[in-house]
Amino acid sequence: xxxxMKLRIAGLAGxxxxxxxxxxxxxxxxxxxHTAPVDTALGAADLRQPGPVWIELFxxxxxxxxxxxxxxxxxxxxxxxxxxxxxxAAGKRGVKIRFLLxxxxxxxxxxxxxxxxxxxxxxxxxxxxxxxxxxxxIHAKYLLVDGQQAFIGSxxxxxxxLEHIHETGLRITDKAVVGQVQAIFEQDWQAQAALAAHTxxxxxxxxxxxxxxxxxxxxxxxxxxxxxxxxxxxxxxxLLSEAKKEVRVQLLDYAPLSYGPDRTRPYxxxxxxxxxxxxxxxxSVKLMVSNWNTDALELPYLKSLAVLxxxxxxxxxxxxxxxxxISYARVIHSKTMEIDGQVAWVGTSNxxxxxxxxxxxxxxxxxxxxxxxRVGELHEQLWDGPYAKALDVTAQYPEPHPGKP
Length: 405
Description:
GO terms for molecular function: catalytic activity. The chain has ten helices and 20 strands. By secondary structure, it is an alpha/beta fold. The strands form three sheets. Strands 1, 2, 3, 5, 6, 7, 8, 10 and 16 form a nine-stranded mixed β-sheet that branches. The longest helix has 22 residues, at 175-196. The protein starts with a helix and ends in a 15-residue tail after the last strand.
């Protein structure tokens, strides 16, 4: 590792060693955490980066760390390299670690990273084929410490997510929400054990309709949600139906399409219908997506939105890193929504079929003016900046190839 990289990582780690010297934006129980990609004009001085936050969480662990992820990828000399060092240190001091990975994420993972994780003392590594449960995947990205703190966000367990991708997440200390996230992990951990043993997968008990006030968790798929956790596929359209003035949305990908067998793309109208209904009643919809959202099947739906009254669509293209091309990076990946300066949504789902209906995803709803304002400002920074361009409904766009220069 170069001296410059060591100094850089040390500087990032120092963000949490001196809490009086750092800025962080939070409301009771929730801290907004943001990856501003290096080598861009973007930044958020009041928001901590995920690397230092994850390190802080791992260092604070006394008895247990639970991690649920889509895939895992490290890179020598990266911030993630240091994050894993602190996870290793936790295991060495006796902290019990459970790491649950999606089976389809194995191909996306770095083999050396998986080998490194499996070698950590006191770490139990399991792979779950979520498709055997619901036809989807574990797409959620989250971790828990001692059942008292959690992190949920768009950041994959990937070195690029900590440095080269626009990401947004939450460090959570709210007791109720942390308890619900823990229950989701336990449900999926038990499901993996049942599948491995060729026994029936236990279903969560049904509970009362969850409260929709204050700050709360929703998740998918509904069938495998613990009691008290609402259904994302119902909650997102419901929140959009409440909008009166403005909705700001930032996503990697948006289209009323799902993923079917033989690479088919079945129609999925749940979210799109709610967005169009909001625009039809006069709500201003500002939708911002990545330049990976311009493939031949998805682009026509974006254009059909952009021609509607009250709807604006922008496509964001981030500049290349100074070090050169990095596959599957330099993109906006945050999944956020702000409604009327009153409600903030920070989650792990793209807005297509296959995410809210049959995959494991987690979303946090915060009925907080302060959080809504800050999430809206993150959106506005990109929206008004040099990287976001209004979608031209008459133009042809290149097919995205995020893995190739």
